[in-house]
Structure of asparagine--tRNA ligase:
Amino acid sequence: IQRLFEEAAHFLQPANSFVVIKGWVRTARDQKQFAFVQVNDGSNVSGIQVVVDSSVPSFDKVASLATGCSIAVSGYVRKSPGAKQPIEVQATSVELLGPVASNYPLQKKRHSFEFLRTIAHLRPRTNSFAAVARVRSALAAATHAFFQSRGFIYLHSPIITASDCEGAGEMFRVTTLPPGATEEQADFFGQRASLTVSGQLSAEAYACAMGDVYTFGPTFRAENSNTKRHLAEFWMIEPEMAFASRDDAMKNAEEYVKHGVSFLLETRMEDLQFFDQFIEKGLVRKLEQVRDLAFARVSYTEAIEILSKATEKFEFTPEWGSDLQTEHERYLAERHFQRPVFVFNYPACIKAFYMRVNDTEPTTDGRRTVAAFDLLVPGIGELIGGSQREERYDVLCSRMQELGLSEEQYWWYLDLRRYGTVPHAGYGLGFERYVQFCTGMENIRDVIPFPRYPGHCEF
Ligand code: 4AD
Ligand code: MG
């Protein structure tokens, strides 16, 4: 259906060309000589209007076609006399392919997103979820286009792994549970293994051989959090660049986020306008600004100063040495800077072992920081986390010791520092948060087809 609209817009179809369309009925109604059926096949928001006159063999049955049944329509595309749509189909035949039971849960009315989560297998038939799926697909394509056009190698990092990249202990154990085995015996063929929380460490190995690489795959976090921004299974894009600094990584991140946004503005305007109208007022304007304005940059220490001076009442008092809370992140992006903002150089004590210790940039009173950065965006908070990596073997070892990580377990990661080490940097962007940001969808559970969160893995 979308192709018909595009061809009509570009005058590629001769007037009155014959077409066959297949899709699902949204509504059918009767006006004496004519019946009108609104058909949607998932390719666009509007679907297309089918006009059926009494000469069509199945005319009698058309007006009573129920919402949700599938049909095939043959007919001629023509300019629509109505103002609502540019084109419509004048049917020569309408064939019912799949009737719909009378208890179809998606009757023509607005349903809450909460209810739709209970029928995740049917929700792509609604306008909102189909639009999310199209935007998500377009953003994935834009992601590959962006990195491929810059010569990055797409790396498939493993899902099953023994290393905890973030060191936060939020991993799902992987088990082979032979009949009769106890939970304690369960393991990955005699080895302890988990689902990956991040592909970063593998990406570092390839970056330290090939320069620029990126991963784009599912990652898993066993944090039992019931928030609008956390899932147990989410997709992450993790670029890793050799011979690169923290600033190089931030520059690349800004360009990547802008590239995806511009691509949507160019290719998915109908969907964006739909979200602008029904989900987040001003969304298109916001995205145009993201595309056009430079992102802000502020050090963690300055960010804490800004937050301390803010008149806003925070639940958690902002304090140097503790992590920024979502309320702080959103204040910085939404109120103070009013645009995406990079916060860089976080205290070492709250960050992962692999982040490069800053020794050339002393902080105000000598407190140790690492060359980390987060990108905070309005409406979401943290969209990206990244850093320059610690490439110095000795410094890395002593950081690992401090944090109680075993050098034996990370032997291969340390090898990268033993053999031809280089400054390198990278980041991880949470794909669902990116889709949320670009659609205005409030809950992360509504931007992934089948969300995984505590108590939910049915579909
Ligand atoms: O900040 P995080 O934990 O960073 C890493 O995993 C690094 N290894 C990335 C890297 O440098 N290569 O996660 C990165 C991003 C976050 O900024 C957030 O957008 C997203 O992943 N994220 C989640 N998204 C949905 N549900 C969760 N539970 C998420 N946890 C992190
Ligand atoms: Mg983070």
The longest helix spans residues 127-149. Residues 301 and 364 are 8 Å apart (CA to CA).
